[in-house]
Design a protein that fits this description.
The chain is of the alpha/beta class. It folds into two domains: about 130 residues, Rossmann fold (3-Layer(aba) Sandwich), CATH 3.40.50.620; about 120 residues, Beta Barrel (Elongation Factor Tu (Ef-tu), domain 3), CATH 2.40.30.30. Helix content is about 25%, strand content about 30%. It is built from eight helices and 14 strands. A six-stranded parallel beta sheet has the order 1-4-3-2-5-6, sandwiched between helices. The termini are far apart.
């Protein structure tokens, strides 16, 4: 997939395109519905192009968008870093048809190309939107998030060296850095999976402020089950499957360790590993 960052004017495309316009803030099931509609109009020798408008939903990073759209068979990805005039985009691309969702269409001016307005995909009677999914992420409702994203919510970051308190307590964790692009997950403990290169493991994820040790900043840490090794400075992807319990200010480290043991046992029972 060809990727083009649009900072000023869109470069002239060399092939006719079915042009899909939207926020693509999450590449959720609503966006995938748009892409399915676009393929119905694509003819031989014609590319499917996505133009992602600026968004602050925090459901994906730029790298996530590139990977997901490539997996969905998009030929060209225009990534807008600031608001742009739609007519200018169309003037510079060989747009055969513009595909937009109903909510985006309401904001469009009159255009000189055929426009197909696609009904918004819905979940539980309401349109699937990035803002709706973000609210669920911030509430820790990970099963509901997955039902609209079409996949688990995922954070990709670089493992940083922390205070190594988890190692001292018998629960060594990965401290995930470089995740400022993402929405802030509700402070809680979650069951998830982690990808380390080509390997996958179950993990207990702790998101929050670590009140037991007087933490002052928000962190996401992952205890990788049945894994040992040094992953500092490596990029890992953590997926959230379900909420286990809210973050709690336990009275001392001993109480915290006992709860962490219970969390792991509960997770293993859920996963059939007990």
């Amino acid at each position: 997939m060809e990727t083009i960052e649009v900072t000023e004017n869109l470069p002239q495309s060399k092939r006719p395109e079915i042009f899909v316009l939207g926020a693509f803030d999450g590449v959720h099931l609503g966006h995938q519905h748009l892409l399915e509609s676009a393929r119905a109009y694509a003819e031989e020798g014609m590319d499917t192009a996505v133009c992602s408008l600026p968004s602050s939903s925090g459901l994906t990073s730029y790298q996530d968008q590139v990977r997901l759209l490539s997996e969905l068979g998009v030929d060209r990805f225009y990534y807008c870093t600031k608001p742009v005039a739609v007519q200018e985009l169309i003037n510079n691309a060989q747009v055969s048809r513009l595909i937009v969702g109903k909510s985006t269409a309401a904001e469009l001016p009159e255009l000189e190309v055929p426009v197909t307005v696609v009904e918004d995909a819905e979940h539980q009677g309401a349109p699937i939107t990035g803002s709706r999914i973000r609210e669920l992420v911030e509430a820790g409702k990970m099963e509901a998030v997955q039902s609209m994203l079409g996949r688990p919510f995922e954070l990709t970051g670089v493992v940083e060296k922390g205070e190594q308190l988890g190692r001292q307590l018998g629960f060594p964790t990965l401290n995930l850095g470089d995740i400022n692009e993402y929405a802030e997950v509700k402070p809680a403990v979650y069951l998830g999976t982690v990808q380390v290169k080509q390997a996958y493991y179950y993990t207990l994820i702790s998101a929050g402020y670590r009140p037991v040790v007087n933490g002052s900043s928000y962190k996401v840490e992952a205890y990788v089950m049945d894994f040992s090794g040094d992953l500092y400075d490596q990029e890992v992807s953590v997926k959230f499957l379900r909420h286990l319990r809210d973050e709690t200010d336990f009275q001392g480290l001993d109480v915290l360790v006992e709860q962490m043991k219970k969390d792991e046992q509960y997770a293993r029972e859920i996963l059939g590993l007990a």
